[in-house]
């Protein structure tokens, strides 16, 4: 699916090496026989009020996990001392203690740092019910909270120090300096956080030497002894932070109690564990992690929401605190889960899948009633149940592999069915202007979700499905697609959410790494495109870009979806799961890749930014990755779609305005936009689009090195007479390129009694009609890019009747070979050609014919234009253009 000849990722390798070394050392710190094993950070159903605002709006708990199931898993994974750290309460601990369970009272309190308006989580141990009431009252001020806990000898731990809540912006460094004075213990191995975050926490805590802490006390005028018993001896802990119970106990802390076995005869393990925590005799354990565990956890959580949640009610959503965006997300989420619950097949799948995550293998007899195409999914689900009950080693990785297999199978089924349905769609009338405009006008999403996905009554269904000449029967179209779509969306949603939660502090982690001088994330950009192997200008430009990336060994990889291209250095090729033709533009093929595969590539490739140069599926994937991984995303506009829609699709003013709003919404989500001409730059920053000028960068293409004047004769290259004027057109033979003006230009030149040899290089849908209109023209077909220099050098003038080109690569290539160009005064060409010096810019085809005639009749003018064209083309240097591009993308060249 992808090439392996990319860079050797070293960032995560170095992180994992550091973690392995740290954990190996922790194992040797204390005698094995004198250690208790405890997961110091885990949750059950009493974590019923989530910190995340969306969860509170939806009125769902953080988990439905029964306490007994959590304790069972902790024992299965090797724990022999127990606690439960639910949010802001210790109800589960009290209940278990009353039942005779030896358990340490604990909770994870949400505490505010008032001077920075940042919310943090504080793991707190060994308090009683009266003290819990007081701690909850003090949660609004971390200094009061910590001072009380210290006075009561209640040990606290700052949970996941690099993951905060309620912060609108990244906390300043002073925030961490003060927290270093307030806390003595820190959780640095958190099972739900990635290794990067954990190792940065570990390096920071190790930097808190007694000398440094004393210097911070003086700087901030804080007496650390108010908040901890021994502020100069920092200690570290670990915990799974598990809510679903799947990975509970796989990350935790070894607690050292001298003469443990003798003391256990007289004292409880909970009391001994509390003593070790107070004294800082803790050795964290766990394993490296990126987002594997969190993906599994969110998938199981989403399934439990589908199985257990209730409608929160519209008034709750509207009246709850939060922004309009929060409430829209909550409304969309509750509607999505309502639709899931309506679909019995999907709910059966969810019930089966959730059961497997809890270790309940589905009975083999159920397989008899499953269709053949779904049996592999059933088998993978049962693998999960088997792994859940087996040895925990590499469980997260194996779970994720099964999830990827299930997702891939669901997508294969969905793609196969969708392709067949799309192929069956027929538009009754021909794709003329009227029908296309009416079809676009009918493409609207209803405000009611039910109207889109189906109706409950036969009568309303009949009304909804009544078809006009150019509409699609939505209900019939969706038949057979609902289950694979809903089930795969559930998996993809969990994958997206886990990445979003894991990496939403990316800017903080990068800043933290720079401050510490360690674990700085590499600067690497993934460049996404829907076209690379196609015969068009965009593909040629990207191929030139790839060659420059290779030659300079730039930290950029291109990614394209194709089943014909082969991967190479800096070029990643993913296989399409679906290929369909674009309606009304049959030359364009849409290719849909496996999004989970791209997820994996992005993470393993260690990318930290995105460039995209096509508005198709890869454009949407770029936005998906941007929001999932919290990285900057740039867009490189090659095509003026408004002009294309007007010229090629003949859209009316109403639909052009709709398209403008759509492109504004799409481009507006990118951090930077790159354009190829000043017209487009002014349009994007003007009143129609209103983008910040600082985000819109003018860039350009360059002509490859082989585009230089060649010593060739026109009669040798084209077979025409020496005294004939060779008029060249090079490009795609399509209507938007203005090729149907070529016959008219030819006739104008013939009127002027010019001996013309008309040469057309290129292919396209208008070729047959052009052959009829200009039967004496020489059609070269598709010309290899390396051979174009000879074509340009053997010609007398290049004509470009297109008003569509955003740049005009053929203009620059021709000028690089000393060939003057006559083009319309529009978009890209007018930025390249110096009118009357290195070529001509015209407004009409008659003027174009006049300028061509003027040029070919004057040898001195030809020589002057040739020299000026070469000189002008050299300003478009690959070195300068790439250097500016890299700088605007935040990459050092």
TrEMBL record:
<dbReference type="Pfam" id="PF13439">
    <property type="entry name" value="Glyco_transf_4"/>
</dbReference>
<dbReference type="InterPro" id="IPR016195">
    <property type="entry name" value="Pol/histidinol_Pase-like"/>
</dbReference>
<keyword id="KW-0808">Transferase</keyword>
<dbReference type="InterPro" id="IPR001296">
    <property type="entry name" value="Glyco_trans_1"/>
</dbReference>
<dbReference type="Pfam" id="PF00534">
    <property type="entry name" value="Glycos_transf_1"/>
</dbReference>
<dbReference type="InterPro" id="IPR050194">
    <property type="entry name" value="Glycosyltransferase_grp1"/>
</dbReference>
<feature type="domain" description="Glycosyltransferase subfamily 4-like N-terminal">
    <location>
        <begin position="536"/>
        <end position="698"/>
    </location>
</feature>
<dbReference type="GO" id="GO:0016757">
    <property type="term" value="F:glycosyltransferase activity"/>
</dbReference>
<feature type="domain" description="Glycosyl transferase family 1">
    <location>
        <begin position="723"/>
        <end position="872"/>
    </location>
</feature>
<dbReference type="InterPro" id="IPR028098">
    <property type="entry name" value="Glyco_trans_4-like_N"/>
</dbReference>
<protein>
    <submittedName>
        <fullName>Glycosyltransferase involved in cell wall bisynthesis</fullName>
    </submittedName>
</protein>
């Amino acid at each position: 699916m992808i090439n392996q000849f990319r860079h050797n990722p070293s960032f995560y390798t170095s992180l994992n090496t550091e973690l392995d070394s740290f954990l190996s050392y922790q194992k040797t710190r204390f005698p094995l026989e004198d250690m208790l094993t405890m997961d110091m950070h885990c949750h059950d159903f009493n974590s019923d009020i989530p910190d995340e605002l969306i969860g509170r709006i939806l009125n769902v708990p953080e988990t439905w996990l029964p306490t007994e199931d959590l304790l069972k898993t902790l024992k299965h994974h090797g724990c022999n001392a127990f606690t439960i750290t639910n949010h802001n309460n210790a109800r589960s601990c009290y209940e278990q203690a009353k039942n005779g369970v030896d358990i340490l009272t604990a909770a994870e309190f949400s505490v505010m740092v008032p001077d920075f308006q940042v919310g943090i989580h504080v793991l707190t141990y060994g308090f009683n019910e009266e003290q819990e009431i007081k701690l909850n009252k003090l949660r609004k001020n971390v200094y009061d909270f910590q001072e009380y806990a210290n006075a009561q000898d209640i040990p606290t731990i700052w949970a996941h120090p690099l993951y905060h809540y309620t912060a609108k912006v990244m906390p300043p460094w002073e925030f961490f300096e003060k927290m270093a004075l307030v806390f003595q213990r820190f959780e640095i191995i958190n099972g739900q956080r990635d290794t990067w975050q954990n190792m940065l926490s570990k390096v920071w805590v190790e930097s808190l030497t007694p000398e440094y802490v004393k210097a911070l006390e003086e700087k901030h005028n804080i007496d650390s002894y108010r908040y901890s018993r021994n502020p100069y001896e920092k200690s570290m802990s670990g915990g799974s932070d598990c809510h679903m119970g799947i990975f509970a106990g796989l990350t935790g802390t070894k607690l050292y109690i001298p003469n443990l076995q003798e003391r256990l005869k007289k004292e409880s393990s909970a009391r001994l564990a509390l003593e070790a925590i107070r004294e800082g005799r803790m050795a964290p354990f766990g394993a490296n992690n990126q987002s594997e565990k969190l993906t599994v956890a969110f998938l199981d959580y989403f399934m439990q929401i589908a199985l257990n949640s209730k409608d929160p009610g519209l008034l709750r959503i509207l009246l709850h605190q939060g922004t309009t965006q929060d409430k829209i997300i909550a409304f969309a989420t509750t509607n999505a889960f309502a639709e899931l619950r309506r679909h019995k097949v999907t709910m059966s799948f969810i019930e089966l899948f959730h059961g497997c995550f809890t270790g309940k293998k589905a009975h083999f007899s159920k397989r008899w009633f499953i269709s053949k195409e779904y049996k592999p999914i059933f088998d993978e689900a049962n693998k999960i149940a088997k792994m859940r009950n087996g040895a925990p080693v590499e469980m997260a990785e194996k779970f994720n592999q099964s999830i990827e297999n299930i997702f891939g199978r669901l997508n294969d089924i969905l793609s196969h069915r969708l392709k067949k349905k799309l192929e069956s769609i027929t538009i009754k009338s021909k794709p003329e202007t009227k029908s296309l405009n009416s079809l676009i006008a009918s493409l609207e999403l209803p405000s009611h979700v039910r109207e889109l996905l189906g109706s409950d009554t036969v009568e309303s269904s009949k009304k909804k499905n009544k078809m006009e000449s150019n509409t699609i029967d939505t209900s019939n179209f969706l038949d057979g697609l609902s289950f694979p779509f809903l089930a795969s969306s559930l998996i993809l949603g969990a994958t997206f959410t886990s990445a979003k939660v894991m990496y939403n502090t990316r800017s903080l982690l990068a800043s933290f790494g720079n401050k510490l001088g360690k674990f700085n994330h590499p600067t690497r950009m993934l460049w996404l495109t829907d076209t690379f192997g196609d015969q068009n200008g965009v593909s040629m430009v990207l191929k030139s870009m790839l060659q420059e990336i290779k030659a300079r060994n730039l930290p950029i990889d291109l990614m394209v979806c194709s089943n014909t291209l082969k991967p190479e250095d800096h070029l990643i090729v993913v296989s399409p799961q679906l290929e369909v033709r674009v309606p009304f533009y049959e030359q364009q093929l849409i290719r849909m890749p496996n999004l989970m595969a791209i997820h994996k590539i992005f993470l393993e490739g260690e990318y930290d930014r995105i460039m995209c140069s096509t508005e198709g599926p890869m454009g949407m994937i770029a936005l998906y990755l941007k929001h999932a991984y919290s990285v900057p995303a740039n867009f490189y506009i090659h095509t003026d779609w408004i002009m294309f829609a007007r010229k090629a699709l003949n859209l009316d003013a109403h639909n052009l305005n709709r398209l403008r709003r759509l492109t504004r919404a799409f481009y507006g989500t990118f951090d930077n936009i790159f354009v190829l001409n000043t017209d487009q730059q002014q349009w994007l920053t003007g009143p129609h689009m209103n983008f910040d000028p600082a985000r819109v960068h003018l860039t350009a293409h360059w002509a490859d090195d082989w585009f230089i004047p060649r010593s060739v004769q026109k009669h040798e290259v084209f077979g025409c007479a020496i005294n004939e004027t060779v008029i060249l057109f090079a490009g795609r033979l399509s209507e938007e390129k203005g090729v149907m003006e070529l016959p008219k230009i030819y006739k104008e030149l013939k009127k002027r009694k010019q001996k013309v040899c008309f040469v057309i290089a290129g292919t396209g849908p208008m070729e047959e009609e052009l052959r009829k209109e200009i039967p004496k023209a020489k059609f070269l077909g598709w010309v290899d890019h390396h051979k174009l220099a000879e074509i340009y050098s053997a010609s007398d003038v290049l004509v470009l009747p297109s008003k569509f080109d955003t740049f005009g690569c053929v203009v620059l290539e021709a000028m690089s070979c000393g060939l003057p160009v006559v083009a319309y005064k529009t978009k890209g060409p007018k930025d390249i050609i110096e009118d009357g010096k290195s070529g001509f810019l015209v407004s009409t085809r008659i003027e174009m014919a006049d300028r061509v005639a003027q040029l070919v009749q004057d040898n001195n003018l030809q020589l002057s234009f040739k020299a000026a064209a070469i000189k002008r083309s050299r300003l478009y240097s690959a070195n300068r253009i790439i250097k500016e591009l890299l700088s605007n993308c935040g990459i050092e060249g």
